[in-house]
Amino acid sequence: MKYSLLALLFAFMISCKSTPEKDYASINEKQITNYIKINKLDATKSESGLYYTVDNAGEGAQPTSASTVQVAYRGSYLNGEVFDESSERGISFPLKRVIKGWTEGITYFKEGGKGKLLVPSHLGYGPYDTRGIPGGSVLIFDIHLISVK
Q: Which superkingdom, per the lineage (predicted)?
């Protein structure tokens, strides 16, 4: 009896467990497609759900997800509020140490390339508040890939 009660309690906890990321997937998709429509963007959607625009593909080296890159960027929410921004000289970092949306998205450009990454929460900071970013947020990044190291 004691084990049956524990099993029942465990099953109940699992069934009640929310999966916020799944909840945000369809919400983020609608938010991003609405943003694209309102801003008249020509965006491409990847298999992962990342949307991106290429204003200038660039002409130099093209990074892989294992590359270290130097990128100038501006990060904002769908409402245009900027939450982070680099200088024009950019910052240097390994693509394996950033959010999934960047690890994937930066590889669509070559050195000198510019564009926009529209990152759903499952490729950003997820369903929970992180470093001042509200959980479930779609993040918009204007990027300029300066160099691949």
A: Bacteria
pLDDT at 70 over 70: yes
Question: Which value, to the nearest 10 degrees, does the dihedral of the CA atoms of residues 129, 122, 95, 58 take?
Answer: -120
Alpha carbons 74 and 48: distance in angstroms, whole number: 22
For the chain, the structural domain boundaries read 20-148
Q: Give the per-residue SS3 of the chain.
A: CHHHHHHHHHHHHHHHCCCHHHHHHHHHHHHHHHHHHHCCCCCEECCCCCEEEEEECCCCCCCCCCCEEEEEEEEECCCCCEEEECCCCCEEEEHHHCCHHHHHHHHHCCCCCEEEEEECHHHCCCCCCECCECCCCCEEEEEEEEEEC
pLDDT digits (tens, 9 = 90+) for 41-69: 999 999 999 999 999 999 999 999 999 99
Residue 58, token pair as written in the block: 């660039």
Mean pLDDT (the chain) is 89
pTM for this entry: 0.85
What pLDDT is recorded for position 11?
41
Q: Do 63 and 57 touch, CB atoms closer than 8 A?
A: no
